[in-house]
Write a structure and sequence with these properties.
zinc (chains A, B), 317 residues, Cytidine Deaminase, domain 2, elongated, homodimer, diaminohydroxyphosphoribosylaminopyrimidine deaminase activity (chains A, B), five-stranded mixed beta sheet, 9 helices, 15 strands, riboflavin biosynthesis (chains A, B), Dihydrofolate Reductase, subunit A, eight-stranded mixed beta sheet, 2 domains, alpha/beta
């Protein structure tokens, strides 16, 4: 299942409006098919894996990160039906599909056709890998990551605004991979005017994975940009399951004030800046007691001399 | 030697004007004597360890974190002489004594008396454990640690100054142990007026290890405090080898501007504060390129939900 979840990551930032599912088909301890939801949502992971496995799917076990879809769609076949027809003997599912059109019916359909079904294996990890899809289903909005590149003392730039470079090439490359894993990036009007950021993915082989650009502003957005007037409007962004907030301090604060940050990506350089620009503006915190218990460290690593820390909102689980 | 260095830690913050040395005497794979420089500098580590070992020191190996002293003092015997007279067969030394009154002569004296001497084992670690003594000898000033208790976004307090509590009980207890390992603590006038800090060690069994209190200010210091007018004046503080800078932002910046911070102790809580007080004021940084390559991570650990990171200045080695 861990391998299937890893496969699901390949579709992230590409698969909307469909969830980025991963699927692995195993027969006699050998992988005979691998699939992940393709660009635009089709084919589904299961369809792709079954096409690889061909007749070897018969009697095999399929590992799927999300319950196979049961509802009819003009865009493609129902995966539950596909798996049953291919003669798969056992389907191991991480996460039950929260979409009410499937929601247990995919598993039931398979069981009725004599397929052994297990559900719940690594469900938490699968939900994290498809966090945007899950939030869309449960709260009607995309999953939001706030990215900050900080000095040890929490600065994102000198007082004059210069921020090239705080973090080194490894951290910047990692940040570009993160961009590719998101459907859209948000910046505020100040950042747009000051930095005129391209927000593209500058990594060989991933140039076509640059996410859409969204401006948080009351004024009009330039050509090639979408605009939202408030963080809450992200719910209306079409085909955006994973959203990255890249700055500046007021935009970060606006999302935090609205309770619309699910994940923090902190790239920290081993430098001190002193007087300079802070990464986060006023979030309306009146009492330190209210600041505690909200964030949980879920990943950390070294990136050259820099360090990455990933925190997830405790309440968004 | 690692055990001898650990022993040396027991005298830190107590042993001035003498270095906090550790000594272990081993005979037939058994520890027969342990010692560390006692309060006020006497007895020396070697004398204490030899007193424990008694006749078992004969033919034994002594591990000492610093070259045994050779120079005559009215305050006690010469350790090189003591070791030779006790019949110790072998002396393993981490660090050659930078004090010009010994500086290789202790080792030479031992060799002349037929004792096998090895020097340099874990010298870097020993130098770190006696960093204050080494800096006193080489630069004529104490070793300076800057402590900060920060939120993830680098704040040390809300905008109204409230900072109770950012870090949790484990981090605060650790900070009190660090206080006990220092001879004196510096704060600025703003911190004194705002927080009236006790700066004492509030840990059971260590109450008597509270360091001296030093005020960085142009105005007079209250009773029980010493005063310096500028960071450079720390060189004149009597019997201070290890100095802890605890705040606030302007005091931290003054020491950083003067190039007088050797070590950073960052206690980081998993909280966001947003608009609030920064930990470090203007350090006169005009170009980000100058900020890089100055700090190296040397230790990190979890303290409850908080994290401690220790950085050392690259140039002070």
């Amino acid at each position: 299942m861990a391998a299937a979840i890893a496969l699901s990551g390949r579709g992230r930032g590409l698969s909307t409006p469909n969830p980025n599912v991963g699927c692995l088909i195993v027969r006699h301890d050998r992988i005979v098919g691998r699939g992940w939801t393709q660009k635009g949502g089709r084919p589904h992971a299961e369809a792709q894996a079954l096409a690889q496995a061909m007749e070897q799917a018969h009697g095999a076990t399929a590992y799927v990160t999300l319950e196979p879809c049961f509802h009819l769609s003009p865009r493609g076949p129902r995966c539950a039906d596909l798996l049953a027809r291919a003669g798969v003997a056992r389907v191991v599912i991480a996460l039950r599909d929260p979409d009410p059109r499937t929601d247990g019916q995919g598993a039931a359909w398979l069981r009725e056709r004599g397929v052994t079904v297990e559900m719940g294996l690594m469900a938490e990890q699968a939900a994290r890998a498809m966090a945007g899809f899950v939030l869309r289903q449960t709260r009607g909005r995309p999953h939001v990551t706030l990215k900050l590149g900080l000095s040890l003392d929490g600065r994102i730039a000198l007082a004059d605004g210069s921020s090239r470079w705080i973090t080194g090439p490894d951290a910047r490359a990692h940040a570009h991979v993160e961009r590719a894993r998101h459907d859209a990036i948000v910046v505020g009007g100040g950042t747009l005017r000051a930095d005129a950021p391209g927000l593209d993915v500058r990594l060989a082989g991933l140039e076509d994975r640059s996410p859409r650009r969204v401006l948080l502003s009351r004024s009009d957005a330039p050509v090639g940009w979408e605009r939202i007037g408030a963080p809450e409007e992200i719910a209306a962004l079409n085909r955006v399951d994973h959203l990255l907030v890249e700055g500046g301090a007021e935009t970060a604060a606006a999302f935090l004030r609205a309770g619309l940050v699910d994940r923090l990506l902190l790239y920290r350089a081993p430098i001190l800046i002193g007087a300079g620009l802070a990464g986060i503006g006023d979030i309306g915190l009146a009492d330190l007691a209210h600041a505690h218990g909200r964030w949980r460290l879920t990943d950390e690593r070294r990136l050259g001399v820099d360090r990455l820390e990933v925190y997830e909102a405790v309440s968004s689980a």
